[in-house]
Amino acid sequence: MNILKELFTFIPASKADAFSLSNDETTEFDVREEKNVEKNYVSTNIEENLAYIRRRYNIPLNDDVILREIALKDGRQAFVIFFEGMVNSQAIDDYIIKSLIGLSHIQDADFDDELYKYFTTHAEVTVDTDMDNVAEGINFGSCALFVDGVATSFVFDVKQWEHRGIDKPENEQSIYGPQEAFGEMMRTNTALIRKTLKTEKLVAYGVKIGSVSKTPGVLLYIDGLTNKKLVGEAKRRLNAIEKDYIIGIEEVQMLVEDRRFMITPQTYATERPDRAARALTEGRCVLILNGAPRALIMPSNAFELTHSASDDYLHVPFALMSRIIRLLGMFVSVLLPALYLAITLFHQEIIPTYLLYSISASRENVPFPSLLEMLLMDISFELIREAGIRMPSPIGSTLGIVGGLILGQAAVNAKIVSPIMIIIIAITGIGSFSTADYTLGWTYRILRLGFIFLASGLGFFGIAVGIVLYSLYLGSATSFGIPFLSPSLGIKKKAMTMAIFINGIAKREKRPGYLKTEDSESEPPISRKWKVKNKFE
């Protein structure tokens, strides 16, 4: 009922929904309110700092917390604290403890300044007086140093923990193009993008999401290209997330999208650095979160979700054929079962006579009605697919063979289902596997069930009603201020053609107009200048 109300009645937009992308300047702000939280600052008394750290980190109850007390040459006391397994122990020994023990006597008046300049031989060090900030650094794999008589703490970036290397993409495979995929290390992921773009205009705006976890991330955009209002809105939404723990970027994706229960994703998560880099050059924003092997591209639209990573590396005829096949697979996976039910139940006159005899003969001994038969086979196929994903790889492939061949053949021999139904479900499953985005595959599966029920009750008319309602629903949706069906709404015909089909790389002079980038030209009208005849020849 809420969906129908949104489609056919006027609802005034709230402040959160009123954002629209334009070229106007925007004021950046942080929507998080300042809370009256008691601040704890570093004391000049080493005993007070030591007692506070012991109490905050439950020492000695915490087994992986290392607290090492150190005595300087002049008798001054100090200590370092870090988590075992998250730091480079050799760097702590060489650049912190050994240097601190060998430090000569320094006058009290100049101690903290001299300590920072001459002792801190490690390159990445920050000085902070807020205990909460110091604890945040320790929790993220840094080592904190406290010295008696100094009202600041030195936080050394000595992170080193086990992680995956750079592997090949698993879900967005492509024969052509780079064969690198994002990992779980944030800085490794940003380096992969910087290695691709190689420009100082690429800005990495740091964010921390989760009031307890404070998961670090970066919002990437190209200064002078990306619409400033889009950047400001992305920052506003990220900073406005109020949740204790954020583990994966998929959680952030659900928290920043305009509509929570829309079955079509409104942003795009990719595991390919080249695809994220290309999105940045088009004028989009990209979020990289520490611990997440995917980057979140904002905004997106309905057409881009059907594009594949290999489209940009293939010749136009090859890429065009590949895209048409994917669109055909989308059509088949969503509408083929519904069309079969509509034809066999309501519109038998459009079936050739001999084919109609064949279908009737195959269903002669099947005890179930067509709708129940269709649902039984569709649910069985979904069970096989889910079981294949959850099982280990060797068992999963075997399960697919057993479920698809042996059980299907047994069901036909037992007269539970008809052979034509097995064919329809098999073609539908193959079409769903041609989806470029795994999340979009879930959309097709939900839509397929909806169209099956509409077709079983109203035939072709029900399918038409479902298409109209879903189109209206997509047309009313937005993604970070752009219509979700862009560029089909109010944009030039050429842009619409490019959204469905593909143009040659030498003919992509303009960036997407609906992004309203500061620089709309991506290449000059003549990019292959070697084709221009030299007038001096």
Residue stretches low in confidence (pLDDT < 50, at least 5 long) are 29-35
**Shape designation:** elongated
Tally of helical runs: 17
Rounded to the nearest angstrom, the distance between the terminal CA atoms is: 72 Å
Radius of gyration: 30 Å
Q: How would you sum up the major sheet?
A: 5 strands, antiparallel
Number of domains: 3
Structural class determined from secondary elements: alpha+beta
Percent range of helical residues: 40-55%
Mean pLDDT: 81
Order of helical and strand elements: HHEEHHEHEEHEEHHEHEEHHHHHHHEEH
Number of extended strands: 12
| Biggest β-sheet: strands ordered side by side in the sheet | 1-2-4-5-3
* Range of strand content: 5-15%
Give a brief rundown of this model.
The protein contains 17 helices and 12 strands. It is an alpha+beta fold and 537 residues long.
Please provide a written account of the structure:
- A hairpin with a 5-residue loop joins strand 6 and strand 7.
- Helix 6 (186-197) crosses helix 9, helix 10 (316-345) packs antiparallel against helix 14 (419-433) and helix 12 runs antiparallel to helix 15.
- A 5-stranded antiparallel sheet has the order 1-2-4-5-3, sandwiched between helices. A 5-stranded antiparallel sheet has the order 6-7-9-10-8, with helices on both faces. The chain has a two-stranded antiparallel sheet with strand order 11-12.
- The protein is α+β, with helices and mostly antiparallel strands.
- The chain is built from 17 helices and 12 strands.
- Helix content is 43%, strand content 11%.
- The protein is elongated, with a radius of gyration of 30 Å.
- It has helices at residues 2-8, 46-56, 89-101, 111-119, 131-139, 186-197, 228-239, 249-256, 273-282, 316-345, 353-362, 370-390, 393-413, 419-433, 438-458, 460-475, 493-500; strands spanning 65-71, 77-83, 125-128, 143-147, 153-156, 202-209, 215-222, 268-270, 285-289, 295-298, 478-479, 482-483.
- The chain has 3 domains: 2-28 and 165-300, no CATH class; 46-156, no CATH class; 312-479, no CATH class.
